[in-house]
Design a protein that fits this description.
Blueprint: H1 2-20, E1 28-29, E2 31-34, H2 36-39, E3 45-50, E4 56-60, E5 63-67, E6 72-75, E7 85-88, E8 94-98, E9 101-108, E10 111-116, E11 131-137, E12 140-145, E13 148-153, E14 156-161, E15 166-172, E16 175-180, E17 184-189, E18 192-195, E19 207-212, E20 218-222, E21 227-230, E22 235-237, H3 242-249, E23 251-257, E24 261-266, E25 271-275, E26 280-284, E27 295-300, E28 305-310, E29 313-318, E30 323-327, E31 336-342, E32 345-350, E33 354-358, E34 371-372, E35 380-386, E36 389-394, E37 397-402, E38 405-410, E39 417-420, E40 427-432, E41 435-442, E42 445-451, E43 461-464, E44 470-474, E45 478-484, E46 491-497, E47 510-514, E48 517-521, E49 527-530, E50 535-538, H4 540-546, E51 554-559, E52 562-567, E53 570-575, E54 583-585, E55 603-605, E56 610-615, E57 618-623, E58 639-645, E59 651-654, E60 664-665, E61 672-677, E62 686-693, E63 707-710, E64 716-726, E65 730-731, E66 735-741, H5 749-846, H6 857-871, H7 874-887, H8 891-898, H9 904-914, H10 919-926, H11 930-944, H12 952-957
Parallel strand pairs: 60-66
Antiparallel strand pairs: 1-30, 2-29, 3-4, 4-5, 5-6, 7-8, 8-9, 9-10, 11-12, 12-13, 13-14, 15-16, 16-17, 17-18, 19-20, 20-21, 21-22, 23-24, 24-25, 25-26, 27-28, 28-29, 30-57, 31-32, 32-33, 33-34, 35-36, 36-37, 37-38, 39-40, 40-41, 41-42, 43-44, 44-45, 45-46, 47-48, 49-50, 51-52, 52-53, 53-54, ...
Helix pairs in contact: 5-6, 5-7, 5-10, 10-11
Length: about 950
């Protein structure tokens, strides 16, 4: 059972792949133009090749062109020659041939550089003409000019000269065949040329293409004699309608496609594609999309792309594209609003009228010849098949289309859309400029019944709900819900809806039937109507599932629970077949963005998986069976294409990040730009995600950007990782580019060694200096300690001296105090003695005799004299003076020095005053009265010149 299931699955996949490999004949596949303005090089492109990493190479009139899907780059030959031939090997070398020159390009120091092989040639065998063909054959490379064949192997070149002039060398499977003019075809076997018998039948016009054919044979294309086949023994003309085309327009080259097709480029009219039986499948020229009709080179890659190098530009033809195009390059029928296929004819409704052409059902190449149907001039709005009749809604009314004729059935202007009534399938309602029209299905076909009365607003979109009411959308006034009478001829109720009912606005609100449910589109999303609340609410489940297509302005049924959603020029096919899940496919329809007439987009189903899409200037055929998911094949690796220094001026550091060479960047150039690309050459939505290990914390968001700047990178090793995603589904493997930001010069290895040496020298010198300084400091410290000790001793001596002085002072003060006390005592003793003697004198004076009479003076004279002598005894003064001088030794000296006119009595008074004695005490000592003391004091003041405000005693004490 398991084996049976696997076999069934294999057969199913094989059938899909086989079907997907079919080249259709209706329209032309998608063609991507690369004009000279884009690739910025010469007009002519003579050869094409592709390397193992997916990079395309073109032999151009100005050198070698490279293209990686995003970036173009030009490399010039040594003498700026035209590159006539190009080939790539598996080691990454790109071989090129030009006039008088051939060699190879390879990466050296992260840049693509040219290495000439002509120095290997002998001096007498230099190349003197163009190298037209290059083939890589295992370990050898074959270069061919019109005069010689050069075989490069193991670093040496072997030369094969032509018996006469060569034309072109062709590789067919493992064989190499070349035409020798006027002799026929020869096979290059090793280093020998072997004639192929009967090849003279091909004529003398030149063999320009030899390709593998059925049963191991060849199919041979000649310049003007058409196609031939070779079965290994004999040559025979291939009977095909393509011969006349190839003879007329001059075959120039050829390539085998998809294992069973052959494409031939011509000089005069583009290219033609035939199958193995000679049936013409496609004709592609400037009218159908090529930039130029002269095909100089042709190449089929491994992704089913056909590349053409033209006389002016490069084109890529997507052979298995699900979209095939037909464009009105001449402007014959104007802008297409509607298209449909009916009874072996294709009809285009345009702004100029209704055009038709024959339609082939058998995938046969039938050129379109569109002609205007008489009387259909004017704006065509709608084409619809109603009960096996083709109905055309026109600016002037509505008519049936009968082959190449029309039959008017209504004159009501502006037939926008026609819908069958669910409540009565025999009736149809049409929206027009002036309201609704009613049609009835009769035995003779669809007939106009009447205008629906009671409603005259323009009715661009109409739908009938489950209750039989008719919803009408006005382009600028919101929505109407109409209730009709039982005969559908009159409107019995009109309900108007606008912002007050929950609509986001009145403009561009349209009506569609989505899975038997009426939905309303707007710029804010889809809405639904709730009859109970009479309000419109957002259809959140649908809006969230649709994402960016929630604001679609149109929905068109695609059958089998599929619908086309068109969002203001962008198209997607949405699948509702799985409950609870919505699949949205928009990537493969990006080619249609902006090509359809906005708000009048038209897509009609013409088969189980084939759709006819109206575009501005023609139509597109979409074949769902040709759609291929990128996830079914391995994606190429992302290429690191360029690393640039953007510090102050742009400078290329490396032209590749995919080589093994080490990339080191100076520290002062640490601002870089990394450019990357994915060599995927089909129409798809590409996004990239990158991560710089050592700098970033996480992967970046997915973005269409193909370059990233990193600034102020610190020194260290970084790993730049990048990956690609196609159509938001398939993710490529991670490409890693490692580079190093060098340390600054002052942190380089040499600098660090110098720093170490300098550090050691500094240590040694520093040690010596330190030791010397330590010695000096030790000496200074010793001297300082000695000085401090001397200072301390000095201070101690001073303290001791001060202490001694203090003691001496205190002793002297004590002695002085003692002497003062002694002086005071002496003075008081004298005072007391004098007072006593005075009292004694007074008492003697009072003595009386026995008679009671006072004694005479003679009687007391001696006693008085003794008393007076005792009171005026100079010995007392001398004793006092000596004591005074001991206490105040310099007093008398200073006094005499300053006042030499003082007499002894003055000096005595000064001494008594100095001792702060009272006048009474002084009078006693001086033996004078108090009055006499005052008089003496007065006189003394004058002699001493004491100021009036100065106390005499204080004056004397201050001496």
């Amino acid at each position: 059972m398991h084996r049976f299931f696997c076999l069934l699955l294999f057969l199913s996949l094989f059938a899909q792949i086989s079907y997907a490999s079919e080249i259709k004949s209706i329209g032309v596949p998608y063609i991507e133009n690369y004009p000279k303005l884009i690739y910025a090089s010469g007009n002519q492109n003579w050869s094409i090749a592709k390397d193992k990493s997916g990079i395309m190479y073109f032999g151009n009139a100005e050198g070698l062109l490279t293209f990686d899907g995003k970036y173009w780059q030009k490399y010039q030959m040594p003498n700026r020659q035209i590159v006539r031939s190009v080939a790539a090997d598996n080691s990454g070398k790109i071989y090129t041939g030009a006039f008088g020159e051939f060699g190879y390009w390879a990466y050296s120091n992260n840049k693509l550089k040219y290495k000439s092989l002509t120095p290997l040639l002998p001096k007498d065998n230099k190349v003197s003409d163009e190298i037209w063909k290059i083939y890589v054959d295992r370990d050898r490379v074959i270069f061919q000019s019109f005069s010689r064949i050069f075989i490069y192997k193991n670093g040496k070149i072997e030369i094969i000269k032509a018996p006469s002039s060569f034309l072109f060398l062709h590789q067919v499977n493992n064989k190499f065949i070349i035409e020798v003019l006027d002799k026929g075809l020869f096979e290059l076997a090793g280093n020998q040329l072997k004639f192929i018998p009967n090849s003279e039948k091909l004529g003398k016009q030149g063999v320009l293409s030899i390709l593998p054919y059925k049963n191991g044979g060849f199919i041979i294309g000649t310049s003007k004699n058409g196609l031939f086949t070779f079965d290994g023994k004999d040559f025979a003309p291939l009977i095909t309608p393509a011969n006349d085309y190839l003879k007329t327009y001059q075959l120039n080259n050829g390539v085998k496609l998809l294992s069973k097709y052959y494409a031939y480029g011509t000089i005069l009219n583009g290219l033609i594609i035939i199958d193995e039986n000679g049936r013409v499948v496609q004709r592609i020229n400037k009218t159908s999309g090529l930039q130029n009709n002269t095909v100089l080179s042709i190449f089929a890659d491994n992704e089913q792309n056909l590349w053409t190098g033209l006389d002016n530009g490069i084109d890529r033809i997507e052979l298995n594209s699900p979209l095939y195009f037909y464009f009105d390059k001449t402007g014959q029928f104007g802008t297409v609003y509607s298209s449909i296929i009916f009874k072996d004819k294709i009809y285009l409704g345009t702004n100029q009228g209704l055009f038709y052409s024959n339609w082939s059902k058998n995938n046969e190449l039938t050129p379109f010849n569109f002609r205007l149907i008489p009387s259909s001039q004017g704006q065509v709005w709608d084409l619809a098949i109603v009960n096996n009749e083709l109905i055309c809604g026109h600016n002037s009314g509505t008519f049936k289309v009968l082959g190449d004729q029309i039959n008017w059935i209504s004159s009501v202007s502006g037939g926008w859309t026609i819908k069958q009534l669910h409540s009565n399938p025999n009736y149809f309602i049409q929206g027009t400029y002036v309201g609704l029209s009613l049609y009835q299905n009769t035995p003779s076909g669809l007939q106009f019944d009447s205008k629906v009365l009671g409603f005259t607003e323009p009715s661009r979109f109409i739908e009938q709900d489950n209750k039989g009411d008719i919803w009408v959308a006005h382009a600028y006034k919101g929505l109407y819900k109409l209730t009709l009478n039982s005969a559908f001829s009159k409107v019995t109720s009109v309900k108007y809806f606008d912002e007050q009912n929950g609509l986001p606005g009145n403009y561009n609100v349209n009506i569609f039937n989505l899975e038997n449910r009426i939905v309303f589109s707007s710029d804010k999303g889809f809405y639904t109507y709730d009859q109970l609340s009479n309000k419109f609410t957002l259809y959140d489940v649908l809006n969230k599932s649709l994402g960016s297509f929630s604001t679609s302005n149109k929905i068109i049924s695609a059958g089998n629970k599929k619908y086309w959603f068109i969002d203001h020029g962008k198209t997607s096919l949405v699948n509702f077949s799985e409950p609870g899940k919505i699949e949205i496919d928009s990537n493969q329809f990006s080619l249609l963005d902006g090509r359809m007439v906005q708000y009048y987009e038209n897509i009609s189903q013409i088969g189980n998986s084939i759709y006819l899409i109206s575009v501005d200037d023609g139509f597109v055929i979409y074949n769902n069976m040709l759609s291929q998911s990128p996830g079914k094949r391995k994606l190429p690796a992302v290429l690191i294409r360029r690393i640039e220094d953007i510090t102050d001026k742009y400078f290329t550091i490396s032209e590749t990040g995919n080589q093994n060479e080490k990339t080191e960047i100076p520290n002062n150039r640490n601002n870089i730009r990394i450019s990357f690309s994915l060599p995927y050459y089909r129409q798809a939505k590409l996004k990239f995600q990158y991560y710089l290990e050592g700098y970033s914390k996480d992967w970046s968001d997915w973005s269409v950007a193909t370059q990233k700047d990193f600034t102020n990178l610190s020194s260290g090793t970084y790993k730049f990782k990048v990956r690609a995603k196609i159509n938001d589904s398939s993710i490529s493997e991670i490409t890693t580019f490692e580079f190093t930001i060098l340390r600054p010069w002052y942190l380089s290895n040499i600098a660090i060694v110098l720093y170490l040496i300098l550090f050691v020298v500094v240590l040694i010198v520093g040690k010596k200096l330190y030791e010397a300084k330590l010695k000096r400091d030790s000496h200074k410290i010793s001297e300082r300690l000695k000085a401090q000790q001397d200072e301390i001793l000095k201070q101690e001596a001073e303290v001791n001296e001060k202490q001694i002085i203090k003691l001496q002072t205190e002793k002297l003060q004590a002695e002085l105090a003692s002497k003062n006390r002694e002086l005071a005592n002496s003075a008081m003793t004298l005072v007391y003695k004098n007072e006593l003697l005075q009292k004694l004198s007074d008492e003697i004076a009072k003595l009386k005799d026995e008679n009671g009479k006072k004694l005479s003076d003679d009687q007391t004279k001696k006693i008085q004299k003794v008393i007076n002598d005792g009171m005026n005894d100079e010995r007392d003064w001398h004793l006092f003076e000596n004591s005074f001088n001991e206490a105040h030794e310099s007093f008398f000296k200073k006094l005499k020095a300053q006042h030499p006119d003082l007499v002894p009595n003055d000096l005595k008074l000064c001494a008594y005053l100095r001792m702060n004695m009272s006048s009474k005490e002084m009078s006693s000592l001086l033996n004078i009265s108090l009055r006499g003391v005052e008089i003496r004091r007065y006189r003394l003041r004058k002699k001493l010149e004491v100021p009036h405000d100065k106390n005499l005693t204080e004056f004397l004490m201050e001496l």
